[in-house]
Amino acid sequence: MLAASVSDFATGPVYNFAAGSGTMPGEVLCQAREELLERGRSGMSVMEMPFTGEAFQAIQRQAVQDLRELLDIPDHYQVLFLQGGASAQFALLPMNLLPRGGRADYLDSGYWSRKAMAEGGRYARIRVAASGAAYGYRCIPRQAEWQLDPDAGYCHITSNETVDGLAYSWLPDTGGVPLVADMTSDFLSRPLAIERYGVIYAGAQKNIGPAGLTVVIVRDDLLHSARPETPSVFNYRVQAESEGRFNTPLTYAIYLAGLVFRWLKRQGGLSAIAARNRRKSERLYEAIDASQRYVCRARQEDRSPMNVCFDLADASLTAEFLAQAQRRGLLHLQGHPARGGVRASLYNAMPEQGVDALIEFMRDFAA
């Protein structure tokens, strides 16, 4: 994010707390601006580069290599840069992983897992292995509550629920059933044990880059189950065999994602990023819990480090809180329309100074 003064706000930096598209690293935006008209001595913008040419293919290869290094992705996993966003994967997962009439388990942890279930249910027999509905979606059901089908084609989780402010702080054990995770809102926020997953997918618009790009990491043995009617552009095997260039890829989005991957490496990698993210979220949750003006509904051990959702104890003050926050340069703090309240998204590029500015405002508002 580029801290800037805007005439409509109080003088000082502006911080974007939007859930998506989220803030991007200022260094990345500056480099993209410098290279907008011409990258290196190519004579053209990345947006003009043919995807069949060596100049773009080098950018793509570097992005894949950097992502593999960041996450320590084993060789028997493929990295795909696809189109359509994570919501497209809700349908494409069963089409790629299950035969017609195939079964899959889903964990209902909140708004986005329900979206995945509704769309996936059009292409497969979906079974709810556990649900947070009975708890008002204030917590993630514990593993002991899960009823898993050992014959399911996969088990799907949403690792971070942006609307409900929930996240897994533990890694589920699904036995021999492939674990599939929608990590759109917490991808690259911490190291991962990649080999515990069959498929990981994530929309780019939180921690990777611009909306529209989707990263899919898929284990090799799961590349050969796509139904005949699966569109070739969305067939994991076809895209893996063509190195992500079966059709024209999102060239500029991949370029920007690559810049973000390099930025993450300069920050010290995902362990350093995870430590920074913990500091940010812990400080904000502490401020919420210390005040009688604010209430966080999520069970403490299930609170999301990425999307801090809370309410004002007096809900009638929410609109005024949001208006005053905007005048202080604290933007897009409104909660999702399905939930309301306040939501502060603390993605990787949100600086600690932004969280400190929000906490200072909250204390002033509560005074």
UniProtKB/TrEMBL annotation:
Aminotransferase class V domain ranges (all copies): 14-358
Entry binding sites for pyridoxal 5'-phosphate: 86-87, 112, 162, 182, 205, 247-248
Classification via InterPro entries: Aminotrans_V_dom (IPR000192), Aminotrans_V_PyrdxlP_BS (IPR020578), Pser_aminoTfrase (IPR022278), PyrdxlP-dep_Trfase (IPR015424), PyrdxlP-dep_Trfase_major (IPR015421), PyrdxlP-dep_Trfase_small (IPR015422)
Cofactor(s) annotated in UniProt: pyridoxal 5'-phosphate
Subcellular location: Cytoplasm
EC number(s) reported in the record: 2.6.1.52
Entry keywords, A to Z: Amino-acid biosynthesis, Aminotransferase, Cytoplasm, Pyridoxal phosphate, Pyridoxine biosynthesis, Serine biosynthesis, Transferase
Record-linked Pfam families: Aminotran_5 (PF00266)
Pathway connected to this protein: Amino-acid biosynthesis; L-serine biosynthesis; L-serine from 3-phospho-D-glycerate: step 2/3; Cofactor biosynthesis; pyridoxine 5'-phosphate biosynthesis; pyridoxine 5'-phosphate from D-erythrose 4-phosphate: step 3/5
An example Gene Ontology CC term for this record: cytoplasm
Enzyme class: transferase
Entry function: Catalyzes the reversible conversion of 3-phosphohydroxypyruvate to phosphoserine and of 3-hydroxy-2-oxo-4-phosphonooxybutanoate to phosphohydroxythreonine.
HAMAP family on file: SerC_aminotrans_5
Complex formation: Homodimer.
Protein name: Phosphoserine aminotransferase
Gene that specifies this protein: serC
